[in-house]
């Protein structure tokens, strides 16, 4: 073979190979015209030890007209296409189901494993022994929930069909009504926080104006705390109580308003909370925009109103080869990690009437959507995961969780509540817990389910207690007694003569994330650097680039979407799910924050100059 032939042989071989691929992708349609089935694929840099390809949809084939030669070509063609990937989502809730939605939309096989028997209400939802609807805590839908509201639009669900109108709320002390929250969107919009101050001014019954004005010091701190990451961490190491005192907030404002709000918003008193996380929550829910505190409620249990149609929509939109499922009653005992990443998940499944069974489920990717307590249990059984990830190990060792009690009371008569949603503040019967109560006959379409024998229905109350460690040891009867005889009649006198027809009490030990001082360093990131096919979701994650904050359904849902997007991006397989941002900061806050950032940069520069030898 001559030099010229040797020189062009690689090029000739390449052209022949390309022509062969092209011929594999050409067939004659019914009219005799040639059509191409060649599917472009891009071989990418290996994400997890092997190459992956991005698939472009191709025309449907008419197998009945296919000859043997064409069938062979198609088989060769399919051999170079990517196989569907499988993801395991550990934990349901807004984070887990958000991840499921994004991954399934991108064409992944997805299974959600959750310990609760019916996490998506696909089998009728949660009922008490008398077949009446119950749920684990009562949650609202606030003004800045753009992604959840967008989900309802996507599901073709009218908001008014599943959510109440925006409602007013009351805050009660043993003396009676202390203050109320108006519906801010009913008023002309003013720059924040002037609108909030103006429209709530006449609503405080027992807090002088001089005490209310001491909030100004806290607002000034709020301008500064995000001026740099170092400053944020300084605030994070401080307790909220230390911040309030430094800012000059009066004790009357702290005890009468801020303490009860934190107990039902972040589930801990100011002495036990990170000042930075508290300011995140206050800014998101109350300070940033006039309407931020406006809230709506689901017209029936959230799993039935939204999660069920969401999951049913995910399943109905899956293609015929796609496997999408929700497995309730499933406890994740171990996540197996080796040098390829998270490779499988060991599941213990409880089958009613059949006992327990174990299964090892293989996975290309894992999304961990559990709280602190769930993470600790999983790490206890996952030695390879605990050894590989110092971030998750630090979270499990350093972070704690909060006890919660949920109750529901059905009464024999209707009692008119001034406000459908309410906060208990300063009651000794709470023993340090935060308390809320909701008048479900004003919120839910059918809070009774099964009717009493006489067919008469009265009011239904959902009351929840947070930071409830001192109440966990009480009997169900004592918790119900305190509500019926002491707490409810103090707020709404009509409950004094009402009788209880049915009641339900459920304790949730170590159920909710505790954002303690210093948690900025102990909360897990979404990305686990040592395991690139495992991502974390949930309200406990740090570094989520979204305006939602605290213990919010929106933040949990967004964290699930974001976690799935990271997996989709790394595998280069599918389209990432869109995420809507909250409303941008108003101009006055942006200007003040820019000044604070400039001052902080100037201060840091001056410190560096002063340290120079000359």
Structure characterization notes:
The chain is of the alpha/beta class. The chain is built from 19 helices and 19 strands. The strands form five sheets. Strands 7-6-15-16-17-14-18 form a seven-stranded mixed sheet. It has a five-stranded parallel sheet with strand order 9-4-3-13-19, covered by helices on one side. The chain has a three-stranded antiparallel sheet with strand order 10-11-12. The model is unreliable at 1-68 and 73-81 (pLDDT under 50).
| Strands, total number | 19
* Number of helical elements: 19
What is the gyration radius calculated from CA atoms? 29 Å
Q: What topology, given as strand order, has the largest sheet?
A: 7-6-15-16-17-14-18
Judged by helices, strands and strand pairing, the structural class is alpha/beta
Strand share of the residues? 15-25%
Give me the secondary-structure topology.
Layout: H1 3-24, E1 26-28, E2 34-36, H2 68-78, E3 86-90, H3 93-105, E4 109-113, E5 140-142, H4 146-154, H5 159-162, E6 169-173, E7 176-181, H6 194-200, H7 209-212, H8 215-224, H9 229-236, H10 240-246, H11 251-265, H12 275-287, E8 295-297, H13 302-317, E9 324-327, E10 330-338, E11 341-351, E12 355-362, E13 365-368, H14 372-381, H15 383-388, H16 390-398, E14 401-411, E15 421-424, E16 434-439, E17 460-466, H17 476-491, E18 500-513, E19 534-536, H18 553-571, H19 587-610
Helix pairs in contact: 3-13, 3-18, 14-16
Summarize the structure.
The chain is α/β, with parallel strands linked by helices and 614 residues long.
């Amino acid at each position: 073979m001559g030099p010229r032939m040797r020189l062009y042989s690689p090029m000739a071989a390449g052209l022949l190979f390309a022509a062969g691929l092209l011929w594999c992708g050409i067939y004659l349609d019914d009219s005799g015209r040639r059509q191409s089935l060649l599917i472009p694929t891009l071989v990418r840099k290996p994400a997890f030890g092997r190459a992956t390809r991005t698939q472009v949809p191709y025309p449907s084939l008419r197998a009945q007209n296919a000859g043997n030669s064409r069938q062979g070509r198609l088989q060769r063609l399919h051999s170079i296409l990517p196989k569907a990937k499988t993801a395991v989502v550990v934990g349901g809730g807004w984070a887990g189901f958000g991840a499921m939605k994004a991954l399934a939309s991108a064409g992944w096989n997805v299974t959600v494993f959750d310990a609760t028997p019916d996490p998506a209400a696909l089998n009728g939802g949660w009922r008490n022994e008398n077949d009446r609807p119950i749920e684990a805590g009562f949650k609202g839908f606030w003004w800045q929930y753009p992604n959840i509201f967008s989900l309802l639009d996507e599901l073709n669900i009218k908001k008014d069909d599943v959510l109440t109108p925006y409602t007013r709320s009351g805050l009660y002390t043993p003396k009676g009504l202390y203050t109320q929250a108006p519906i801010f969107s009913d008023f002309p919009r003013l720059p924040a926080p002037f609108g909030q101050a103006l429209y709530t001014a006449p609503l405080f019954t027992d807090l002088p104006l001089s005490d209310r004005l001491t909030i100004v010091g806290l607002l000034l701190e709020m301008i500064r705390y995000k001026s740099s990451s170092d400053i944020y961490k300084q605030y994070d190491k401080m307790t909220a109580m230390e911040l309030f005192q430094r800012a000059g907030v009066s004790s009357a404002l702290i005890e009468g308003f801020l303490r009860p709000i934190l107990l039902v918003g972040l589930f801990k008193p100011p002495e036990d909370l990170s000042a930075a996380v508290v300011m995140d929550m206050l800014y998101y829910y109350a300070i940033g925009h006039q309407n931020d505190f406006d809230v709506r409620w689901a017209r029936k249990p959230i799993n039935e109103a939204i999660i069920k149609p969401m999951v049913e929509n995910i399943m109905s939109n899956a293609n015929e080869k796609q496997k999408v499922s929700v497995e309730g009653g499933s406890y994740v005992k171990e996540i197996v990690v080796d040098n390829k990443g998270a490779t499988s998940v060991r599941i213990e499944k409880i089958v009613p009437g059949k006992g327990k069974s174990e299964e090892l489920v293989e996975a290309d990717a894992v999304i961990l959507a559990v709280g602190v307590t769930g993470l600790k249990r999983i790490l206890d059984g996952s030695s390879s995961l605990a050894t590989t990830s110092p971030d998750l190990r630090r979270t499990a060792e350093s972070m704690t969780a909060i006890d919660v009690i949920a109750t529901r009371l059905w009464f024999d008569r209707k009692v008119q509540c001034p406000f459908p949603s309410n906060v208990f503040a300063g009651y000794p019967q709470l023993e340090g817990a935060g308390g809320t109560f909701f008048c479900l006959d004003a919120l839910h379409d059918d809070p009774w389910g099964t009717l009493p024998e006489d067919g008469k229905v009265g009011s239904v109350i959902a009351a929840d207690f947070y930071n409830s460690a001192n109440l966990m040891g009480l009997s169900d009867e004592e918790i119900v007694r305190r509500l019926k005889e002491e707490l409810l009649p103090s707020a709404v006198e009509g409950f004094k003569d009402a009788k209880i027809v049915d009641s339900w009490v459920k304790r949730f030990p170590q159920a909710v994330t505790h954002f303690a001082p210093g948690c900025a360093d102990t909360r897990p990131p979404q990305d686990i650097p040592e395991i690139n096919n495992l991502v974390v979701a949930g309200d406990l994650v740090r570094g989520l680039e979204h305006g939602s904050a605290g213990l919010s359904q929106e933040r949990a849902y967004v964290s699930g979407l974001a976690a799935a997007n990271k997996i989709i991006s790394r595998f280069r397989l599918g389209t990432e799910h869109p995420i809507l941002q909250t409303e941008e900061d108003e101009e006055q806050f942006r200007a003040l924050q820019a000044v604070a950032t400039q001052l902080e940069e100037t201060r840091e520069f001056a410190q560096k100059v002063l340290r120079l030898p000359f």
